[in-house]
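Morning - zinc ion inputs below, output right after.
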Amino acid sequence: MFKWLLLFAGAGLFYLWIKGKKQAALDAENPFKPNKNKPEKVSSPEVMVQCQCCKVHLPQSEAVIFENRFYCSKEHLQSLGSKGWVGDAHWRISPNQDARPENTQPDLVVIHHISLPPAEFRNKPSSHHIVDFFQNKLDSNSHPYFAEIAGQKVSSHFLITRTGELIQFVSTQDRAWHAGASSFLGREKCNDFSIGIELEGDGDTPFEASQYLVLANLIQKLASMYPLLQFAGHSDIAPDRKTDPGIFFDWKKFQKETAISGEKLPFGLSPR
Ligand SMILES: [Zn+2]
Ligand SMILES: [Zn+2]
């Protein structure tokens, strides 16, 4: 009985040996046969994107993404690009713009305030109305004041909301329509050579600390690209028509936070 068992085991081992030899021969014939134990990795090609600021190409997985835009680094996200757009601002392009006169670089920043409807921000967030206004999308039926102004075609380069959100409507290289009839130290048509910054406000309410912070940060970027910038309020360049940014805009605080020299503030630091 034991002999039979040995014979069977021997036959079994012989069979396995023959089978192994056959498989080895087959594998030798077909060296590219995929190995079943190690499935091949199916790797899709890496999607490449371009940094909005420096135009370098990089894999999307390594990019910093903001509002569907790609940047190679946090530094480039936060910078003012050569095309005149701030990377980490919300871009809401306004049609109310055109080219600056030839060979004109901005050398003035005009500070404004705006709120729609006036003072509404005290009760509820309403900065979206300003965005609509600058994009000619204000619904004139939704408020009597909107019916008055909806036909106006205006814009600014930037808006800083009560919560410190930075929104950009026009490239700093182009002309936004914010100043209207105006004169800065004898030079007319300030839109030609200025950058307009709107602070959400109503003239009767102090501005928020976060608005000053975002403003100072923005001024730093602007001043590094345009070293000749001087600073004025809308009321300084259109005194017969305009009162903004008003007495609640703290020019001393503005100067302290931006570290701008006094010479760049030709209208002084007193409230007005
Ligand atoms: Zn870059
Ligand atoms: Zn204004």
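Note: Residues 51, 53-54, 56, 71-73, 76 surround zinc ion (ligand 1) (CB under 6 Å).

O.
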